[in-house]
Specification:
By secondary structure, the protein is an alpha/beta fold. The chain is about 25% helix and about 30% strand. The chain contains 5 helices and 14 strands. It has an 8-stranded mixed beta sheet with strand order 5-4-1-6-9-10-12-13, with helices on both faces. A two-stranded antiparallel sheet has the order 2-3. A two-stranded antiparallel sheet has the order 7-8. Strand 9, helix 4 and strand 10 form a beta-alpha-beta unit. Helix 1 packs across helix 5. About 35% of the residues are buried. Bound molecules: cytidine-5'-triphosphate.
């Protein structure tokens, strides 16, 4: 992958509703950072756009740190043009609070309702004019793994999707391992056993190299 520009998103996003509180998810960024390391070792020029993750910058990778989905969207707008591969490993929050309170919300003892508005789907939007760039997504599912992931592959105009079954203890958020079903846009699929995220990242990069040929 010598010199090939690759953009990877990783980690969760944080959607603030006041200066000290936010909506997020348990993503640690491990999968996206492993992919960034694997791609950089293969000679790719890697830009890693990371939500808040407690991980060090991978060697030889340009790391851009963001908080919210809208900040991630802005970073993608800047870095996707000219890239050849986009891997969307971030657990982007689907919603954000409609309003960011300027001051810390005070408790009143009464129930509180926070209105949420949808965030843009960063991967689907990027898929609208991807040209010959390879797009790879992840699917986090708790049911109908193959059908739901296959639908995301089509809806988001992907070349490949790695589907994770979140009900398994060896897959998904925060685990060091992942079990993935890889589905390709030509209709083929590959059911991989559970393995370390660092090993899965090598297989995903191998498949991406095939797609680039
Ligand atoms: N994704 C994204 N922007 C979003 C939501 C998701 O770019 N606002 C990307 C993720 O990085 C992942 C893929 O889309 O590569 C699928 O994410 P997932 O959370 O599995 O699915 P959603 O599209 O959010 O659908 P749902 O929550 O209904 O399952």
């Amino acid at each position: 992958m010598d010199g090939i520009p690759v953009v990877i998103t990783a980690g969760p996003t944080r959607e603030k509703f006041d200066p000290v509180r936010f909506l997020s998810n348990p993503s640690t960024g491990l999968m996206g950072y492993a992919l960034a390391r694997s791609a950089a070792r293969r000679g790719a020029h890697v830009t890693l756009i990371s939500g808040p993750a407690n991980l060090p910058d991978p060697y030889d990778v340009e790391v851009i740190r963001v908080e919210s989905a809208l900040q991630m969207e802005a970073a993608l707008k800047e870095h996707l043009p000219g890239s050849k591969v986009f891997i969307s490993a971030a657990a982007v929050s689907d919603y954000r609070p409609a309003k960011l309170e300027e001051e810390k919300m005070k408790k009143s003892g009464e129930p509180v309702t926070v209105e949420l508005v949808p965030n843009p789907d960063l991967l689907a939007n990027a898929g609208k004019n991807k040209g010959d760039r390879i797009h790879v997504g992840f699917a986090a599912e708790t049911e109908n793994l193959k059908d739901n992931a296959g639908k995301k592959l089509k809806d988001k105009n992907l070349d490949m999707i790695a589907a994770n079954d979140l009900t398994r203890s060896d897959s998904g958020f925060g685990t060091d391992t992942n079990k993935a079903l890889l589905i390709f846009s030509d209709g083929t699929s590959e059911d991989l056993p559970a393995m370390k995220k660092s090993n899965l990242s090598e297989i995903i990069l191998d498949r991406i190299e095939n797609l680039l040929k």
